[in-house]
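Hey, can you fold this?
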Amino acid sequence: MNPTTALIDRLKAEPAMSGLRRSLEVYYGDPWREGAMDALHARFIGAGDLAFDIGSHVGDHIGSFRRLGARVVAVEPHPLCVRAIRSIYPADPQVALVQAACGAERGKNRLHVNSVNPTVSTVSTSFIHRADGAAGWESEVWDSEIEVESVTLDALVADHGVPSFVKIDVEGHEDAVLAGLSAPLPALSFEFTTINRDVALDCLDRLTSLGPYRFDVSLGDSQVMTFNSWISKDDMARHIRALPQAANSGDIFCISHIQPVAPGGTEPT
């Protein structure tokens, strides 16, 4: 089920894929990272479950969800990333690819494209303003725009069913994605950055307005939970506010109390 090394190498060798080369090198071909990612996601999904990958980028989370036996709906607006995903998962009937952004409403949106680093392309102008001059983001330039389709989480649920887990990584647009959700889901994660913490705080508020969510967080690409227990919205908000700027980013994991526990998972507390 894993894409072959030769396939990834062919993609990296294509001149058109030069902007994705680093992402393909980082996110594929590391057995430790893949094992750690699978162990983390196994808390939430198992064989036969449905998972949404919102902001698929080069599709490494698709690979993790498929290794666990889940069906995947992958949502990605950037044409180059879409091409990579189609190349890596060309004939898997358990992967449905939706070429669109995800947001608060269906329709059209503007994707601000970073040509050198396409995986940080974003719909959020606020994210771009916060990144301007911020430590660690100095070299990032969003140099063009394209119009893309936009879908909502509610529409995806209506079209594909209720997912056991949703991963959201959309470069500062996570709050808008959750604004397009009107009912609690069993489990999800959303990315945050320390240059744009208000988005994470808004996401916490949105989720707890929908249902009795609890939270944990994994910093950077560690694939390890910080607390290894489920804490309240207020405790998570305090933790996010207190993080040093150098922490840069992470993923906040969220479960509702209605979540069934996956095999090998941990009980909500």
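Oh, and this one too while you're at it.
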Amino acid sequence: MLYLGIDVGKFFHSFCLLNEAGEKKVLQIPANKQGFEKLSQLVKKELRDNELLIGMEATGHYFLNIYEFLLRLGVPKDNLVLLNPL
């Protein structure tokens, strides 16, 4: 299983991808079409090879686009966890 944490922001989204051994990959994408395409490539690759659990903070309304985008990519709703930043 892989774990993807998303720090949602107005202009950028930051990610940390962890595997079960604790190895991590950190990246940041702009909150625009090009950034979402980069995220799409990462998620599709990881979904093909692994089970993926995604946690993201529900920051204002900024999380809505990325949440819906991940659902459309085929991430099961049960594998998307919204976290309250408070």
